[in-house]
Amino acid sequence: MVEVPAVVRNKAVEAGAQRWLAELDQVVAELAASWGLTIGATFSEGTEAFVAAVDLADGTPAVLKLLV
Fold first, then answer.
1. What is the pLDDT of residues 53-65, one digit of tens each?
2. Bridge partner residues of 67 (DSSP)
3. b/e burial code for range 10-45 (CB count within 10 A of at least 16 → b)
């Protein structure tokens, strides 16, 4: 289960994006599997999107950002 910062969760609810919240775990899991990502820590400072540290399949560090 991904961690969604409260401010991002609240923005999603205000925008009527409950479906985005409900499907976020699945979307992250599918992207991780498709792109060979290892999902790391969620950035708690996000305000408009789910943002997490990831490692690419070759070990390169990157960031995954999914807008509400």
1. 999 999 999 999 9
2. 49
3. ebbeeeebeebeeebeeebeeeeeeeebeeeebbee
Contact (Cβ atoms closer than 8 angstroms) between residue 67 and residue 21: no
Kindly give, in sequence order, each residue whose CB lies less than 8 Å from that of residue 60, ignoring residues fewer than 6 positions away.
none
What is the pTM assigned to this prediction? 0.91
Total number of residues shown for the chain: 68
User: Backbone dihedral region of 54: left (phi > 0), alpha (psi from -120 to 50 degrees) or beta?
Assistant: beta
